[in-house]
Amino acid sequence: MRLNVTAYIARSSPVRQMDARVKVCLLAAWSVALLLARSWAGVGLAALALAAVLAASRLPAGRVLAAAAPVYAIAAFAVAFNALSGSGEAPPLAALAPAVPLPAAAAGLSRGLLFGLRIVLLAWGSLVVSCTSTSTELTDALRSLLAPLRVLRVPVDDVATTLSLAVRFIPLTAEELARVRDAQWSRGAALGGGLGARLRAGAGMMAPLFVGLFRRADALARAMDARCYGAPGPRTSLGARRLGAREWAALAAGLALCVAVALL
């Protein structure tokens, strides 16, 4: 069983060629701006900006929308909860008669739609970054952005390496679980039945699963030790990149847009 832990889509585009550090910084600013947006004007501006970025990234819109399917359930719950509660002040619908009071149910529905749209836009923005950046690029970007913390003796390289290994072990865990399940099934283990039977079968797979994972971790530790990981001296990179004029311009424009979304 193969588990794809990265949503990366190999497709050439201006967004794909952008430095991952810029995309990570803009994603963080985008998240804060959406959390601070309290009006339909701000959220509408964010939606238009995201649509433009999605078009520039040349990603298949259907695939991006389908990848965020679990988020739609959360957004629907937020809409339903606010519509049923019907209390609080609803955000004005931009310039559409903001002074006209709304009934309690309509006010709750308007507020819920605003919250749900913010959640969906946040998920879509994260998917644009993950679909246009490899896991290695994102890890290197994190290492570069955390580099100033070295002054405080924070092991930035170790943190980035740990994150990369954690991401890599997700598919390995899935493969090990599939191997254990197939081995028990071939030996006649009862893996079906009701919920209780399935839980008991799953509990029986935990011991061999962890044994296999610890075996992989021990092999990884020996491999890292054989390659002198942790040796003194600064670490270097084969493909070190510097931010150019285009990256700085995109970063400035993106941050200005995020400020506008938060203030509207």
Overall domain count: 2
How much helicity do the residues have?
A: 55-70%
- Average pLDDT works out at 80
Question: Helical element count?
Answer: 10
Pfam family, one: CbiQ
Membrane topology: Multi-pass membrane protein
Organism: Adlercreutzia faecimuris
Protein name: Energy-coupling factor transporter transmembrane protein EcfT
Summarize the structure.
It is found in: Membrane. The chain is an all-alpha fold and 264 residues long. The chain has helices spanning 14-17, 20-36, 40-57, 61-67, 69-85, 104-131, 135-145, 156-186, 195-226, 245-263.
Present the secondary structure layout.
Elements: H1 14-17, H2 20-36, H3 40-57, H4 61-67, H5 69-85, H6 104-131, H7 135-145, H8 156-186, H9 195-226, H10 245-263
Membrane topology: Multi-pass membrane protein
InterPro entries: ABC/ECF_trnsptr_transmembrane
Organism: Adlercreutzia faecimuris
What does this protein look like?
This protein folds into two domains: 156 residues, no CATH class; 72 residues, no CATH class. It is mostly helical and 264 residues long. The chain has ten helices and no strands. The longest helix has 32 residues. The relative contact order is 0.15. Helix 2 packs antiparallel against helix 6, helix 5 packs antiparallel against helix 6 and helix 7 packs antiparallel against helix 8.
